[in-house]
């Protein structure tokens, strides 16, 4: 045991809100709807749900087990359990993936900031799709404002992270999630009752399995990992702050359930409106920003709802961004022995730079390609579709094959204070050892064919 007093979550509610806060973010409200639109609708959603249940839950248990067992950052955790081994790749992926994800995440966070401001202007809400599309691309492709809002978003996240786990992350995570839920529910109801919403409902619920290819399966897997914050040590890091008595099952189930609920609800808020307004579902990253203002325009007090929506979306994005930053900062403070402040500043500078590149890649740097992709797409694709699946694969292999079974049992039962039937434990272990790794491998290999 380390003698240094480590920071940690103060209460069960705090842990839940922080983990759910990490999971629920732009991944649900911005990324999920356009991934569904790009990948054929209902069949994608079914695959997504299957991955959440079969793969994501076991991976979440596994990350929690590693984190709480070792009380360390992702790199330090693996170092404690398997010193100087190839398993340390997990630790390396965690830091690299956080930087990569934040390098586009904070750009989109900046867009939400700008859309809060835009919502104040009465002319913002219109039912004219093409003017909203033009407004969006005009803004995101410009060279100054999006970079400024990206840096602002990153700075706010950094300030919260400097404050530490209990006073920063936990406190800021607590209040606004339920409000967000009701707002998205309201939007979903309005969207579903628009004229012409039926085609959208069909798109969401009537699967056409011929649309599933290796690539869409990988996209669903990447989206599931991304949405639940899995595969890069984020939950290892948060797990390290969780009290020894806490029930890891409960936290995992509730977080996964809340996250999936938010994603489906966001799909219901966006996709029917997409069809009703005649927008293409495969519009990509701009989808939410073009569609929702039109739904707001159809609501009483639309302007207030718009301001509230983008504001709370910003909060949801922040609670996710801080969990990503915490992975890097915990690594720098515990492994490199930097001060928390120094670590945050260095992280800010690094992501500030890469994020600016990915912001500019929507405009003047659009022609600069890394492996055939713009900076923005490169960071998004490599993190979600490569690093997270590979990281998740290594995590389940680690817990299934490298850790002592007695340690795994001890963590899952919180030191034998929670009763866990033998067959349930054996089934979970079986999934972690065989089912999850094989399934991830199949998806990864299939996507290359
Ligand atoms: N899950 C968050 C979202 O949906 C983003 C996120 C936070 C994340 N931490 C992560 C994604 C770790 C991948 C890995 O917005």
How are the secondary structure elements laid out?
Elements lengths: L11 H12 L2 H13 L3 H29 L3 H8 L7 H31 L9 H12 L4 H18 L2 H9 L2 H17 L5 H8 L8 H14 L6 H6 L8 H29 L10 H11 L4 H33 L5 H21 L14 H28 L2 H8 L9 H27 L1
Helix pairs in contact: 1-8, 1-13, 1-15, 2-11, 2-13, 3-4, 3-11, 3-13, 3-17, 3-18, 3-19, 4-5, 5-7, 5-15, 5-16, 5-17, 6-14, 7-15, 7-16, 9-13, 9-15, 10-13, 11-17, 11-19, 13-14, 14-15, 15-16, 16-17, 17-19
The structure holds tryptophan.
Tryptophan (TRP) binds next to helix 1, helix 2, helix 11 and helix 15.
Describe the structure.
It is a single chain. The chain is an all-alpha fold and 449 residues long. Helix content is 74%, strand content 0%. It has helices spanning 12-23, 26-38, 42-70, 74-81, 89-119, 129-140, 145-162, 165-173, 176-192, 198-205, 214-227, 234-239, 248-276, 287-297, 302-334, 340-360, 375-402, 405-412, 422-448. α6 (129-140) crosses α14, α11 (214-227) packs across α17 and α11 packs across α19. The protein starts with 11 loop residues before the first helix and ends with a helix. The model has no long low-confidence stretch (mean pLDDT 93).
């Amino acid at each position: 045991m380390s003698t240094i007093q480590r920071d940690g979550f103060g209460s069960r509610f705090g842990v839940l809100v922080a983990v759910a806060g990490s999971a629920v973010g732009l991944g649900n409200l911005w990324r999920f709807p356009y991934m569904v639109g790009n990948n054929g609708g209902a069949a994608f959603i079914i695959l997504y749900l299957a991955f959440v249940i079969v793969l994501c839950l076991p991976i979440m248990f596994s990350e929690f087990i590693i984190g709480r067992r070792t009380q360390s950052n992702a790199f330090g955790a693996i170092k404690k359990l398997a010193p100087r081994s190839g398993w340390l790749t997990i630790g390396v992926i965690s830091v690299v993936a956080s930087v990569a994800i934040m390098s586009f995440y904070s750009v989109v966070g900046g867009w939400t900031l700008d859309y809060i401001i835009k919502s104040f202007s009465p002319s913002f809400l219109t039912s004219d799709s093409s003017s909203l599309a033009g407004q969006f691309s005009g803004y995101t492709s410009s060279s100054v404002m999006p970079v400024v809002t990206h840096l602002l978003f990153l700075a706010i996240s950094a300030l919260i992270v400097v404050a530490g786990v209990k006073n920063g992350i936990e406190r800021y995570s607590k209040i606004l999630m339920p409000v967000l839920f009701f707002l998205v529910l309201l939007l979903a109801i309005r969207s579903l009752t628009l004229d012409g919403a039926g085609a959208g409902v069909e798109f969401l619920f009537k699967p056409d399995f011929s649309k599933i290819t290796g690539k869409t399966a990988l996209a669903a897997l990447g989206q599931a990992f991304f949405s639940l914050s899995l595969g890069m040590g984020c939950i290892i890091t948060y797990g390290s702050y969780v009290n020894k008595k806490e029930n890891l099952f409960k936290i995992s189930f509730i977080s996964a359930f809340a996250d999936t609920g938010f994603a489906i609800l966001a799909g219901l808020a966006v996709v029917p409106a997409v069809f009703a307004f005649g927008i293409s579902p495969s519009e990509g990253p701009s989808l939410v920003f073009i569609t929702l203002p039109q739904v707001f325009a159809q609501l009483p007090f639309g302007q207030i709802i718009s301001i509230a929506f983008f504001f709370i979306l910003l909060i949801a994005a922040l609670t996710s961004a801080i969990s990503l930053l915490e992975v890097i900062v915990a690594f720098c403070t515990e492994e490199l022995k930097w001060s928390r402040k120094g670590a945050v500043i260095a992280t800010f500078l690094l992501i500030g730079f890469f994020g600016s590149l990915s912001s500019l890649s929507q405009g003047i740097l659009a022609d600069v390609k890394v492996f055939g992709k713009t900076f923005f797409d490169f960071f998004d694709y490599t993190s979600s579709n490569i690093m997270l699946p590979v990281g998740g694969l290594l995590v389940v292999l680690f817990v299934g094959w490298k850790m002592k079974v007695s340690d795994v049992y001890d963590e899952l039962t919180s030191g034998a204070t929670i009763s866990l039937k033998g067959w349930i434990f054996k089934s979970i272990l079986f999934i972690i050892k065989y089912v999850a790794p094989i399934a991830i491998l199949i998806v990864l290999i299939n996507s290359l064919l």
